[in-house]
Amino acid sequence: MGKVIAIANQKGGVGKTTTAINLAASLAANDLRILLIDMDPQGNCTTGLGIAKEPGMATVYDALMGTQPIDAMIVNTEFDGLQIVPADKNLVGGNLDLVDMHRREYRLRDALENIRGQYHYLLIDCPPALDLLTVNSMVAADSVLVPIQCEFFALEGISQLLDTVDRLRESLQPDLKLEGVLLTMFDDRTNLARQVANDLKQFFQDDVFDTIIPRSIRLAEAPSFGKPILSYDVRSRGAESYIKLAKEILENEQRNGSAS
User: What span, in angstroms and rounded, lies between the C-alpha atoms of 150 and 208?
Assistant: First the structure.
């Protein structure tokens, strides 16, 4: 049964989609089968992997509404081992459309049930909001990975996200775990970034990944070419950091698996 990881932070611009795309590709580079689910109405994961948004294309919205099974909308990417369930602007109305639906918080979980076994990991790129799309993503997930930008207001709003995770544990998904906190957009030339990184490590302690994602022009450029950083510039610091992150997640999985 594949492990489902939701990548979430209600604050925008923290490297959430960059992490979803590049972690997915880095895991796939380990000869693993990976499915990326784009739950952000902006559809940046979809375009960032070079998938054109054609009119009438089946997307994750159709899976949430139950009009088509999710395997009907899985698209191959140019990166070996990595497939995606795309999103487009239809998802904007998803929150309103879900409100009156039966099992509204479980729509994504139910949709994924029959295909989980076909993948090693399923990564969900959540929208930058604590809405029904994010709740669906977290209820479908085994764990939540939280990217946090190394900037002055880094901790602002994170307590709200962690409260949501706690509430979901109590009510809808008792097994939901924190996969880890990922420090992103780190500029080691500034005292502020180093200070914020230290503060975050003190606050989250062992929940912070050892891997830190640097601020990188190459990482920022890659999506406009429809490629993960491993395809765009495999020798860049950004590529190196996401390869390290994938390795850290796989090692943690192995360690936790052997401990249980």
Answer: 13
Cβ atoms within 10 Å of 201's Cβ, excluding its own: 16
What backbone torsions phi and psi does residue 129 show, to the nearest 5 degrees? -165, 155
d(CA 219, CA 233): 9
CA distances from 179 to 4, 32, 139, 206 (A): 10, 19, 14, 11
Q: Is the pLDDT of residue 259 over 70?
A: no
Task: Locate 60 and state its tokens.
Answer: 């994750």
Residue 130's nearest CA partner among 226, 32, 11, 33 is: 11
pLDDT exceeds cutoff 70 at 258: no
Contact 24, 161 (CB under 8 A): no
Burial 81-95 (b: 16+ CB within 10 A, else e): bbbbbbbbebbeebb
Average of per-residue pLDDT across 27-49: 96
Rg, Å, the chain Cα set: 17
User: CA quadruple 248, 123, 24, 118: dihedral positive or negative?
Assistant: positive
Which residues share a beta bridge with 145? 7, 180
Domain 3-259, CATH: 3.40.50.300
